[in-house]
């Protein structure tokens, strides 16, 4: 797959005027892994962004500003969810089917590099080939927390109803 850039959109129930754009560049690495570069642009002073940290594996990163990728398995039911904090912390979960499971996935730690520059936050992530399920569809999303604690949900495509990154409609990008 050649590199592909896509824009995430805020869920209509959770607008976030502090954020101008959330953009993701996706590409297959030569090693078969996946490279993701998330760029958050806007009034970053009004967004809760944790400072860089040690890069530990932690649960519940989705409760605060984080970036996510969901990878659908070849069976069309199972999937893996990865969460990446701007602090460098991460988590990965395996699901057997829609919200069935959520056990920590046996994956290699991702390589996460953060860059802050003039109203932009960049998170460059490398996932190893062995960490990826065999499927070809993925969902891209972000959770943005404002300084007042409000949460906004961003995705490539939203399913009908409340924000739900696990819904099959959210797996909107085909890897070729």
Note down, in words, how this protein is organized.
- With 176 residues, this protein is mostly beta strands.
- The protein has a single domain, classed as Sandwich (Immunoglobulin-like).
- The chain is built from no helices and 12 strands.
- Strands 1, 2, 3, 4, 5, 6, 7, 8, 9, 10, 11 and 12 form a 12-stranded antiparallel beta sheet that branches.
Largest sheet: 12 strands, antiparallel
What coarse outline follows from CA principal-axis ratios? Answer: globular
State the name of the first-level CATH class: Mainly Beta
> What is the number of E strands?
12
How many helical elements? 0
Q: By helix and strand content, what is the structural category?
A: mainly beta
- What's the rounded overall pLDDT mean? 94
CATH architecture: Sandwich
User: Which percent range fits the helix content?
Assistant: under 10%
Strand content: over 45%
The separation of the N and C termini measures 5 Å
């Amino acid at each position: 797959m050649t590199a592909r850039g896509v824009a995430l959109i805020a869920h209509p129930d959770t607008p976030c005027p502090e954020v101008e754009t959330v953009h993701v560049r996706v590409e297959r690495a030569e090693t078969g892994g996946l490279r993701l570069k998330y760029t958050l642009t806007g009034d970053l002073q009004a967004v809760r962004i944790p400072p860089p940290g040690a890069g530990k594996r932690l649960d519940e990163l989705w409760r605060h500003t984080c970036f996510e990728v969901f990878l659908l398995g070849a069976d069309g039911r199972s999937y893996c969810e990865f969460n990446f904090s701007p602090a460098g912390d991460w988590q990965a979960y395996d699901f057997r089917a829609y919200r069935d499971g959520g056990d920590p996935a046996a994956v290699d730690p991702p390589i996460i590099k953060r860059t802050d520059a003039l109203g932009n936050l960049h998170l460059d992530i490398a996932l190893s080939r062995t960490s990826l399920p065999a499927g070809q569809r993925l969902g891209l999303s972000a959770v943005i927390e404002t300084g007042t604690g409000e949460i906004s949900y961003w995705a490539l495509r939203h399913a009908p109803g409340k924000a739900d990154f696990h819904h099959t409609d959210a797996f909107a990008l085909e890897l070729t």
